[in-house]
């Protein structure tokens, strides 16, 4: 997995870069060598914001955190991302062909005690744009949760139309299929 580390309005020294590379190396057990990772650090007042994003195939994994120093913020973001992956592993495992790059991780988790499935716990809270990918509404909902967003625009594999999946105020999900 390739990792790129950026400092926006701050310098990332070699010691910090090496520590971040060591911390992100744990994701090698989740992803294969085709994964690409980015760590962006940016000062925010007296704190530092860390945004960690991994991209593999058409899937994105993203977490961010704010901490008193860069390493604390990165560690918190990494912990958040690991939690997301563990929370949604049963959904990803069901879609084995789409998440085949995580097969070794799933096999390892079979040995451990299975966590209760979090089938209906999605909460959409934010918006972000990225290139449109063809997927099913369930895949779009999962991708939206992994990114931490409140909605996601996607190309429906079923209809071939641009659709939006979003989190409703009552905790359920909505799907907008425009007629054109």
Structure overview:
The protein contains five helices and eight strands; from the N terminus they run βαβββαααβαβββ. With 180 residues, the chain is of the alpha/beta class. It folds into two domains: 2-87, 2-Layer Sandwich (Double Stranded RNA Binding Domain); 120-180, 2-Layer Sandwich (SHC Adaptor Protein), CATH 3.30.505. A four-stranded mixed beta sheet has the order 1-2-3-4. The chain has a four-stranded mixed beta sheet with strand order 5-6-7-8, covered by helices on one side. A hairpin with a 2-residue loop joins strand 3 and strand 4 (59-67). The chain is globular. The mean pLDDT is 82.
CATH topology of the largest domain: Double Stranded RNA Binding Domain
The total of helices stands at 5
CATH A-level architecture of the largest domain: 2-Layer Sandwich
Number of strands: 8
Order of helices and strands: EHEEEHHHEHEEE
For the biggest β-sheet, the strand order reads 1-2-3-4
Q: Determine the strand fraction and express it as a percent band.
A: 25-35%
CATH class of the largest domain: Alpha Beta
In short:
By secondary structure, the protein is an alpha/beta fold. The chain has 5 helices and 8 strands, in the order E-H-E-E-E-H-H-H-E-H-E-E-E.
List the helices and strands and how they pair.
Elements lengths: L1 E6 L6 H11 L11 E9 L2 E10 L2 E9 L2 H18 L1 H6 L8 H9 L22 E2 L1 H11 L3 E6 L5 E6 L5 E4 L4
Parallel strand pairs: 1-2, 5-6
Antiparallel strand pairs: 2-3, 3-4, 6-7, 7-8
